[in-house]
Each structure stands twice: as C-alpha cells, then as structure tokens.
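Lab notebook page, bench 4
Experiment: in silico fold of construct C2
Operator: M.H.
Input chain length: 107 residues
Purpose: comparison with the prior construct
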Amino acid sequence: IVANKIAKFWATGEIEEAVNFPNLKMAPKGTVRFIISNLNAPGALQKILETFSLANCNVARNVHDTKDKVGYSIIDIDSDAETAMRTVEELKRQPLITRVRIINLRT
C-alpha cells in the first residue's frame, strides 16, 4: 500500500496520509503540473500565483493546503516546456518556497 502511495505521488504529486504534509489531490487539467512546497507564512501563496502571472502562464486548475509549518500546492498550467522551466527557476528563487517539481501532463 505504501509503495502505491509513493508511486502515485511521483506520477501526480498527490499526497495521502503523509506525516508532514496535508492530504491533497486534484484531477489533471492543462499541459504541465507544478508541485510546490513552501513555508506556511503570510504571502507565500500570493507569491506563487504572482510568479505564474508574471511569466504569462495561465493557471488551469490549482489546489493549496497547509499542515503546521508546511504549505503544499498542485498547480496545472497551460504552457510550453520552455516557459514552464523558466517559471520553475523563478519559483526556486522565492525565499518562502522550499521545493518545486514539474510533471508533464501531455500524454
């Protein structure tokens, strides 16, 4: 059962019954999925969404939750790979963001 949860996390970014992270899942929509963990602090989610806006990325769907000191977002966008990679690098520069990963949703 644990192996299935880990495989699902790597494939979709969804988290279920984790000790340090909130439970979070979302049906895919868009071309690229961003998995973002951040410090649970005022303005963190705003900075994440502002980064997408400044990169001219359309957020197709998103969900965000927190648990204790950790924030976790799953954000699907409609974008090309080059823009997505630039956005990853910009997100990594944000001091409240601790980790960023992308998943290609195109099949």
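Observations: The first strand starts at residue 32 and ends at 39. The mean pLDDT is 93.
Next step: discuss at group meeting.
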